[in-house]
Amino acid sequence: MPQMRVAVAGAGIAGLTLAVALRRAGIDCHLYEQAERLTEVGAGVQVTPNATRLLHRLGLHERLQAVAVAPRAIEMRRWDDGRLLQRTELGDLCRRRFGAPYYTVHRAHLHGVLLSLVPPDRVHLGARLTAVTQSADEARLHLSGGTTVTAELVVGADGIRSVVREQIAADRPRYSGQTIYRGLVPAHRVPLLAEDPRVRLWLGPDRHCVCYPVSSGRQVSFGATVSASDWREESWTARGDGTELAAAYAAWHPDVTRLIGAADTVSRWALHDRESLDRLSAGRVAVIGDAAHPMLPFQAQGANQAIEDAVVLAACLADAGPDDLGAALRRYERIRLPRTTRIQQRSRANAAVFHLADGDAQRRRDASVQASSGLERHEWLFGYDPEQATTTSRS
Ligand SMILES: Cc1cc2nc3c(=O)[nH]c(=O)nc-3n(C[C@H](O)[C@H](O)[C@H](O)COP(=O)(O)OP(=O)(O)OC[C@H]3O[C@@H](n4cnc5c(N)ncnc54)[C@H](O)[C@@H]3O)c2cc1C
């Protein structure tokens, strides 16, 4: 459908990946982003083989490799004595098994890598979407300041508070009762956690902490959850109180307390998700990424699923004839919904599994994670190829 006009709300990981994938398919699109500038915010993100495979095919192999770290393993440990509960080998083993690496990356670097393939005149900054309307022939983005943009297809890549999603569902984000403190520490302050790169998790009663190196190994990114009923803020730049964080983890293993203590500043983020949808489009409007299926970060898949969505949607649109938009969008949601719903639900369930109190249930969990180490456990997640699924759905 080469002449189709596509307007995308949001230039996050979902919107930018869609722009790159559509361009590869010969479809032009414009992105409308509320931020005035695309600046460096946030901390780390784990990009798993199911998504790095797609980024490589989009032509981002070298650019991604230049900023990423390839951890050698994922390690889960007990919160107090640091005893190893489970180790999953990554590195070359992962590359060989899944044909793509497992990376840890600074969010802003991933953003920059994607942006490098989007022509600057296709990204409209300071363009905040306030409403979407549509008729049989076109959809309209209404932007703050009174501008209206028309297109044959509007894609909502506008995150968990999506305005575009209102065309599809009348739901609201759900607070999980968890907040997460995030920080970036210069690698030289925590050499033991930076050298021999690994994704490290410590699991304990009511909270857990995860860390990994980013920025080609120059920084270590961490996220430490704390339950709180009264905190609702979602912003990569909302300041957290380092003293409160240190108090919450005071009795934890010294590797954790040293890491937390080494951060100059921490941000704090209230964790929300939403119920799964039974469709991802309505008329001339579709949603991808967090706008479609915001999930808790306890499986590190939100951005990875956004990348999968973008690639599948672009392929469905590229395959469709000029009058087949409806069929293309139905195909997109048929391919994506079973997978994203499963991952959304598992991410929610992981909160309870990670945060068990010391006792029998925790001991049973530890025995089961010890028994299940190994990459084969992740086959369904990392081995999945959404482009292959799209090809299969053609026949
Ligand atoms: C603590 C934490 C850790 C995480 N770790 C991982 C991880 O390791 N791996 C992983 O895969 N995922 C992870 N995630 C999830 C991941 O960050 C998100 O799933 C991902 O950023 C979603 O990308 P997106 O582009 O859909 O949405 P967003 O990143 O929210 O981007 C939406 C964009 O739309 C813009 N926008 C919003 N509203 C409007 C509007 N009205 N008009 C115009 N523009 C608008 C925003 O400014 C933004 O640029 C984590 C999330 C959290 C909170």
From TrEMBL:
Question: Which UniProt keywords are given for this protein, alphabetically ordered?
Answer: FAD, Flavoprotein, Monooxygenase, Oxidoreductase
Q: Is Flavoprotein tagged as a keyword?
A: yes
Question: Required cofactors, per record?
Answer: FAD
Q: What InterPro entries does UniProt report for this protein, alphabetically?
A: FAD-bd, FAD-dep_Monooxygenase_BioMet, FAD/NAD-bd_sf
Q: Does Ribonucleoprotein count among this protein's keywords?
A: no
Top-level taxon in the UniProt lineage: Bacteria
Q: Name one GO molecular function term.
A: FAD binding
Where the record annotates domain FAD-binding, the positions are 4-346
Q: What is this protein called?
A: Salicylate 1-monooxygenase
